[in-house]
Amino acid sequence: MKIRLLGSGTSSGVPRIGNDWGACDPGEPRNRRTRCAALVSTATTRILIDTGADMREQLLRADVGDVDAVIWTHDHADHTHGIDDLRQIAHNRGRQVAGYARPHTFSGLERRFAYVFHGRGAYPPTVGLQPLDDSVTIGDVVVRVVDQPHGDITSAGLRFDHGDSSIVYSTDFHELTGDMETLYQGCDVWVVDALRHQPHPSHPHLEATLDYIARIRPRFAALIHMDQSMDYAALRASLPPGVEPGYDGMEIIA
User: What sequence ranges are listed for the domain Metallo-beta-lactamase (predicted)?
Assistant: First the structure.
């Protein structure tokens, strides 16, 4: 089982509009970050995590035209507003895409994108929504879920298990709860939010994330959802062994 980081940036990406690179070196390709999304895959199963506004280009770069399912972590715009591009995946499959979301996330998606789930006029629905229970099986992957505090909402923290391999993906949260710590312990790979150096009310900053990694003790951790203050080379040089900055296109084998 492996995970490909389709995007590793914040809601504004890096650089921000206006060519704002902040502290990031524009000459380092790994500093160019699109909105967070990922693809978990085995030999027979592909699971897309989130459908941000950059999804089309992300899937083209990954040479992926089909997925078995999509899981939404929450309904914020930077994680959902590429949802229309699931239509082409449905065309490729010849049937609807299975979409999984927690009830509160589904409510927001259905309110804004009803046509995706119910169709409109001559256009059929492209996604068949499934409940994202605490444990679901998609193909040959078991997905276990915990609700993460993210400001005044929650996001879905995801643990993927296949054989003896495990990957945890947790973006958009601001503290590590006991339930999260229990589920994430013993994972091989943890892909985890580390927004910036300074504290933030709804995301962990670098110091907090490194503390969480020390508590979870994954074999390897990759940092995501990073803003323009997080230069790839400077950050990589400062991190402890087994922790690296994620970047768009990075692939990690569990």
Answer: 34-225
**How does DSSP classify residue 125?**
P
C-alpha dist (Å) from residue 60 to 55, 63, 88, 195, 249: 8, 5, 12, 26, 11
CA separation, residue 91 to residues 76, 97, 124, 133 (Å): 26, 9, 11, 27
CA–CA gap between residue 45 and residue 68 (Å, rounded): 6
Strand pairing of 220-224 and 153-162? Answer: unpaired
Structure tokens at 195: 């927004």
CA distance 207 to 203: 12
CA–CA separation, 199 and 18 (whole Å): 25
Which two three-digit tokens encode residue 224? Answer: 């995501």
Dist CA 124 CA 254 (whole Å): 37
At 46-101, the pLDDT tens digits run 999 999 999 999 999 999 999 999 999 999 999 999 999 999 999 999 999 999 99
Backbone angles phi, psi at 178, to 5 degrees: -60, -40
- Name the DSSP class of 64: -
Q: Is the pTM of this model over 0.70?
A: yes
Partnered with residue 166 across adjacent β-strands are 161
Instruction: Report the Cα–Cα distance between both ends of the chain, in Å, rounded.
Output: 6
Of 167, 136, 176, 141, nearest in space to 250 by CA: 167
Adjacency order of strands within the sheet including 141-150 = 135-138, 141-150, 153-162, 165-170, 189-193, 220-224, 243-245
